[in-house]
Amino acid sequence: MPEVTDGMSYAVPDDLRRVRAFVTERALALGLPRARVDALTLAVSELTTNTLQHTSGGGHIRIWTEDGRLVCDVVDEGADRPFGRAMPSADAVRGRGLAIVELVCDSVYTTAVPGGTLVRICLDL
Question: Domain Histidine kinase/HSP90-like ATPase, which positions (predicted)?
Fold first, then answer.
């Protein structure tokens, strides 16, 4: 059974500091090792920054544990994300965010939801 889900919304760039603090605090409280907390915080920061750069609205984050994993959903009004691509070349100006998310997380799943997209990232506890 999942532990109680905790969440927060974000809408503007000034919210990103609160997003990172929220994710770090909750992940530590849920038992994720510190080195993995930094990876999770990086991944969520990349996803939420993409939300603010590529959609007209903000988003919502949910985080909990389930079956020995920490699970984090990032939900926004954006289109489906193109996961599964290689890391862009060193001279590319953009495009590393989603590749970084896949690199630092144990699994990444995305699906359409009413009004947008859900990206679920998981890290083993």
Answer: 12-122
